[in-house]
Amino acid sequence: xxxxxxxxxxxxxxxxxxxxxxxxxxxxxxxxxxxxxxxxxxxxxxxxxxxxxxxxxxxxxxxxxxxxxxxxxxxxxxxxxxxxxxxxxxxxxxxxxxxxxxxxxxxxxxxxxxxxxxxxxxxxxxxxxxxxxxxxxxxxxxxxxxxxxxxxxxxxxxxxxxxxxxxxxxxxxxxxxxxxxxxxxxxxxxxxxxxxxxxxxxxxxxxxxxxxxxxxxxxxxxxxxxxxxx
Length: 230
Description:
By secondary structure, this protein is an alpha+beta fold. It has one domain: 3-methyladenine DNA Glycosylase, Chain A (Roll). It is built from 5 helices and 9 strands. Strands 1, 2, 3, 4, 5, 6, 7, 8 and 9 form a 9-stranded antiparallel beta sheet that branches. β3 and β4 form a beta hairpin. The N and C termini lie far apart (about 45 Å). About 40% of the residues are buried. The C terminus is likely disordered.
């Protein structure tokens, strides 16, 4: 693939670890509107985080977090570390150090592409913007994030990092999480309401035209419609 033509890069300030909230719910909400950036050799890809899920206590889904090595588990910067299993941002529960503790985590479910969109389209094999980075698997593929970054501190100055918001975040909504069997009634999923509604509208228009399905993380239904928080 040929190198993309250079465009004026966005000015994105790197987040400091001290800026990240210590609580799982607070972190999941805080990340909405922030920027996930991957500096690759020939292109920078970046996306605005628009959907997260919080896992504030040990659940069956918490077994996904075991991929992080014990050495990383005892790090004081665990809340900014990445575990590459569907792009988890991990937050450490201090009870782990006393034995019998558990990981708590925030799942980044979707970003809005900002930079490197052509590269993301090439990685995903599609030009449909709404299909590039919705869902953690698509997101990781589009942004070329894999297990080489497992355990990475996203606030430590590396090539994959968290940045501040580059535009106003707007209203944040809360809904139930997707594809779980426990605590299904809890509003642990956070979304950027404007982006969610816009993507859902585009998906519905595409579905009505026969070009695709409106189903997916951005689709709307009575159970998944976000309740505004701010």
